Amino acid sequence: MITVGPLAAADRADWERLFRAYVAFYEQDHPQSMYDRAWAEFQADTRMHAFGAWRDGSLAGITHFLTHPTTTAPDDLCYLEDLYTAPEHRGHGIARALIGAVGEWAAAHGCGSVYWQTRQDNATARLLYDKVATYHGFIVYTMELPA
Is the backbone of residue 27 left (phi > 0), alpha (psi -120 to 50) or beta? Predict the structure, then answer.
């Protein structure tokens, strides 16, 4: 049985463990202040949002998302920024459940679509993504700004 919903204050340690594993998967490292800022945003639940997925009583996966206006559609868009399932819970529908929950939330909040990105070589994730969404062939560029 999988349940999905907002993260509560008591979920902080489990969330951070999963988010750090997600960050490590992408070969990044961030200071504690970044995790603290993200958690504060999720708890405020105004600009950035987070859901957890629980399986057998433990936090098995997380997702972070936000909405923004767009110039090319009549409705706002929902950007699913992060999605992670703990290795021991993979293959049980956790990521699919999280994506579905974000889609339901976005529809209820007037968004026209949900979109996300992943690395081109993330073949395992793309197997699921190709089943639940459409790949339109866009490539993402990032311009880092000086601090």
Answer: left
Dihedral in degrees, nearest 10, Cα atoms 7, 13, 15, 20: 160
Q: Which domains does the chain have, with CATH numbers?
A: 2-132 (3.40.630.30)
pTM of the model: 0.95
Output the CA angle 96-97-100, nearest 5 degrees: 85
Task: pLDDT tens for the chain, 147 residues: list them.
Answer: 999 999 999 999 999 999 999 999 988 999 999 999 999 999 999 999 999 999 999 999 999 999 999 999 999 999 999 999 999 999 999 999 999 999 999 999 999 999 999 999 999 999 999 999 999 999 889 899 998
